[in-house]
Design goal:
The protein is an alpha/beta fold. The protein has three domains: about 10-100 and about 230-305; about 105-230, EIF_2_alpha (Alpha-Beta Plaits); about 305-455, P-loop containing nucleotide triphosphate hydrolases (Rossmann fold, 3-Layer(aba) Sandwich). Helix content is about 55%, strand content about 15%. The protein is built from 15 helices and nine strands. The strands form two sheets. A five-stranded parallel beta sheet has the order 5-9-8-6-7, sandwiched between helices. It has a four-stranded antiparallel beta sheet with strand order 2-3-1-4, covered by helices on one side. Helix 2 (about 25-50) runs antiparallel to helix 9 (about 270-305), helix 3 (about 55-95) runs antiparallel to helix 8 and helix 5 packs antiparallel against helix 7 (about 190-210). About 25% of the residues are buried.
Length: about 450
């Protein structure tokens, strides 16, 4: 059996994990000790600090200032949210009910009437003083009368519409002596109804304006009704729709801002503050203690040359594993027993069956070997157990009790007298380098290394 000199050591994460888990006692112990030390130190120092009168007074002032700022910010957010909610409701109502917003910009019906206002004003030739010209005043009076809210409400009632939305559909313009009235509608009949109501308003205001301002006549220059494409209306509708989106976005941001506000905590009593600080540092100490032990275990595992598992021995030296036995007969704790079972290590059970399997493996692997020497770096008592366990089970094979051929001169002198070698190694005690030297000495003497029995 030749050592595998080309073997490249790799870290087995499973072995590393179980190596850490087996150290659960020191992990818990160190974690608890550091938790008590750090937590206790922090609690005591915090308690002393919090009992200082200046510290208590400063903490109260800071809390009052923070609470005042919190309440101010909260009130502002709630007020703005209320305003935005109302604006959104109004905007939605407007978009739903406004005739202008629900009108197709590609089919807008427009009724237009142009009126001529004539007064008795005449220019007096060669006269320094002229009569007063009330034409502009009369035109402005008609425009005011046709656009005031009271009149628009009357028109809206006549056509079955809210005056808020009617105002968007009518326009009155003055140019020279011309008064131009324009009415929009979703249909031809709607536009005509609005226009008729507007003209009725002109007739109803005529006598009042004559009496209060001056005599004049009103005559119709032109009247038309037709459908047109109004791209400006399309832009207006989009702007109003975008406004609703902007309002919703603003409301969402303001709600997030309100949710993000945190009410400041009242200054705790000295005892409570000390306890809280102590708990925080106790948790920190617990984590730090556990980490330190885990770190040390990992470093030792990676740097150690000690045998950890039969699997690693097989991978390194291609040696056959004849069997695995428990190194100690003492009863394990429930945690350790569970960990060994999960890892697949030998349990503290009756070893007679395992010795029977070891003997069977030796018979299968040893061939015509007549004498076997049991040697290794395991505890001498364990070597004696293996010899006793194999002598009665290997008929026709002489089992020789050996020892550590690297340290025991007598065992080394007996090595040439045997035909084969059975190694006995112990996890946590035997070293990989020593196993390599044992295999090398057996090879130099041309001895058959039948396999290895590993005590775990």
């Amino acid at each position: 059996m030749e050592p595998n000199n080309t073997y490249e050591q790799e870290i087995d994460l499973k072995d590393l994990m179980f190596a850490v888990l087996y150290k659960w006692r020191p992990i818990i112990l160190v974690a608890v000790v550091l938790a008590v030390v750090l937590g206790g130190y922090r609690a005591v120092s915090s308690y002393r600090s919090q009992n200082d009168a200046a510290t208590v007074e400063k903490a109260q002032k800071d809390y009052d200032a923070a609470l005042e700022l919190y309440e101010k910010n909260k009130a502002n957010c709630e007020r703005e949210i209320e305003n935005l909610t109302k604006s959104i409701e109004d905007q939605q109502d407007y978009l739903e009910k406004s005739a202008l917003m629900n009108m197709s910009p590609y089919d807008v019906w427009v009724a237009q009437t142009v009126l001529f206002i004539k007064t008795d004003y005449q220019i007096m030739p060669d006269m320094v003083y002229q009569n007063l010209n009330f034409t502009d005043t009369i035109l402005a009076s008609y425009r005011t009368a046709l656009t005031n809210l009271e009149f628009l409400k009357t028109v809206a009632d006549s056509v079955g519409m809210d005056e808020r939305y009617l105002e968007e559909l009518v326009s009155v313009a003055v140019s020279g002596n011309l008064l131009t009235i324009e009415a929009k509608g979703e249909t031809e009949s709607t536009a005509e109804k609005i226009m008729d109501a507007m003209l009725d308003g002109v007739d109803s205001k005529k006598d009042q304006i004559r009496t209060s301002i001056g005599n004049h006549t009103v005559s119709q220059v032109s009247s038309s009704v037709g459908s047109k494409v109004d791209l400006n209306l399309q832009d207006t509708q989009k702007a109003q729709s975008d406004r609703l989106t902007t309002l919703n976005d603003s409301l969402e941001k303001k709600q997030d801002e309100l949710d993000a506000l945190e009410e400041p905590e009242k200054p705790s009593t000295s005892t409570m503050t000390a306890v809280k600080n102590g708990i925080k540092y106790a948790v920190l100490g617990c984590v730090l203690g556990a980490f330190l032990v885990v770190f040390v275990v990992c470093v030792i595992f990676l740097m150690s040359d000690k045998l950890y598992s039969a699997k690693e021995l097989k991978n390194r030296y291609r040696v056959k594993i004849l069997g695995k036995l428990p190194a100690s007969a003492k009863k394990l704790s429930a945690v350790d027993a569970r960990l060994r079972k999960l890892e697949g290590r030998a349990g503290n059970t009756d070893t007679s069956a395992e010795y029977g399997l070891i003997a069977a493996n030796i018979s299968n692997y040893a061939g015509d070997v007549k004498s076997l020497m049991v040697l290794g770096t395991a505890d001498p008592k364990l070597l004696s157990q293996v010899v006793s366990g194999l002598e009665s089970r290997l008929a026709g094979v002489k089992v020789m009790a050996g020892g550590n051929v690297l340290r025991d001169e007598q065992s080394l002198r007996q090595l040439p007298e045997c035909d084969g070698v059975v190694l006995v190694e112990q996890c946590g005690s035997s070293a990989y380098s020593d196993v390599a030297l044992e295999i090398e000495k057996a090879k130099d003497l041309q001895k058959n290394v039948v396999g290895c029995v590993v005590f775990e």
